[in-house]
Here is the input.
Amino acid sequence: MASLNFISLQILVIFYTIIKNCESISTAIPPNIPAPSYNSPVPATPSDLPCPGPEEEPISPSPLSIPDPLAPAPDFYSPVSPAPSPFAHPSRGIKAAYWPSSDAFPASAIDTSYFTHLYYAFLLPDPTTYKLNVTQYDQIKIPEFIGEIHAKKPHVKTLLSIGGGGNDPTVFSKMVSSRTTRAIFIESTIEVARNYGFHGVDLDWEFPANVTDMSNLALLYKQWHKALVNEARFCGKPRLLLTSAVYYASKFIFDEPRSYPIEAIRKYLDWVSPMCFDYHGSWENFTGVHSALYDPNINSTLSTYYGIGSWIQAGVPPNKLVMGLPLYGRTWMLQNPDVNGIGAPAIGVGPGGGELDYSQILDFNIEKYATVVFDGETVAYYSYVGDSWIGYDDVGSVRLKIQFARSRQLGGYFFWALGKDKDWTISRQGKLVDCITLF
Here is the structure.
């Protein structure tokens, strides 16, 4: 009995040590608080949903019309890239976020302890020369960003992101159309990245418009990768990472059908980042969850489950997929305040002109005494008060999505964007999931 008590004491000591090493876990995962029932109102607080333990069953997905590509997948392909794998710890992977330099959120305020990779967003190519246009503003902001990040511990890798939602897609289309213009663009990206001390470059082309664009994008990836390899060998430095933010699914179903160049992605990119959000918005006349993990409509393709599955089914290795998570929500004005579920008729934009940052959503919910609902079918939250309706992610849904990414052996996740969180409430969830899975 004495020896048993000693062993029990040792186990408690180890357990306590792990808990202490996991930041704020004692307050972020409150004990003895039952999870809310699906589709039931929950308090409007950011940490009210306890994290499911590893022994709990995940929420059952709705069946889809495609074969299940999300069963635990084998290692389809070994990375072709000669650079060291970014997936140093496969159970934890990449925790990334974009920093929009034009926002008011300062680089000095970034807490790097929650991330492995941070993107500077964005630079744009000159529409005539195709060289990166480093404006006077960027000449101030980039050194500020790099200096702040490199000075902090833990150190994270920085990437220069090119494009973004505000880019002119026709400029990229013209740039990729010939080997000469691609070379000018590529050389410029390498020069800027090296001059400022970035660890990699990222392309966010929203979006290649047709089959020709997609074919030329493959040529860009191949030529870019070769240039990065040659430059690294010549300079004796580690090769710059090459990544790309992409549509949530491997194929575009709306407008002109076209598919991403899977073989080029598999061979030449370190990873791609599907933007798993904006499935719904105020452009529609009904409310919707804009980053649903699942969609109860069997014929719907608007879900992260479907999108990630399409990439794996197309042939991209799971560990080359870094899943996008939004730090903002979409809002509507309800047609009838008494009809306030997902899919309720709407007659216009809601608070914030159709979009609110996560921090703004929490403030709105508290100030307006909004009803907050966790929807188990979509794995998302929504809130409503009067004729205002907001669909968004909160602590509970983000934890489940990170666990989903891990269960599918994805490379990691990224957030759009820094400055939209509330006291790092969402950003820290990956770190807390790491702690939970130790037990």
About this structure: The CA atoms of residues 80 and 267 lie 5 Å apart. Confidence is low (pLDDT under 50) at residues 1-91. The two ends are 25 Å apart (CA to CA). The chain has eleven helices and 18 strands.
